[in-house]
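Sequence in, structure out.
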Amino acid sequence: MAGAYRALSFDGDGTLWNFETAMSLALVTNGNTHPRRVGLDGLFEAVVVAAECGFHKPDPQIYHVMLERMRLEACDVLHVGDDPVEDVVAAQRAGLDTVWINRDRLEWTHDEAPSMAAADLRELTLRLTSR
């Protein structure tokens, strides 16, 4: 799925690396955005791949695997993704706060609303650092 790759990707300006210097990063993927394949090897403290852990998004259990690997509680995590169901709804059902990367400015159509929405990682960075 190209959208998931775009959501975590480069936004052309190194924004993802700016996140990495400020916080621990984990990647939860169904396999389409494995760091080795997209040039992001070494950026993430934990990588949870569906085929390796036995759970696939939108199963919230895949997010619990990430929490266990990172030794974090759900309340300490902000999950960022662009798929409304696989990233936002599933992560919220696992107890995580969520950010929906909504590059196409679509209307939200699900019951569980994201904690925040942003057009891209640059906007998210500005919103997180302006508080």
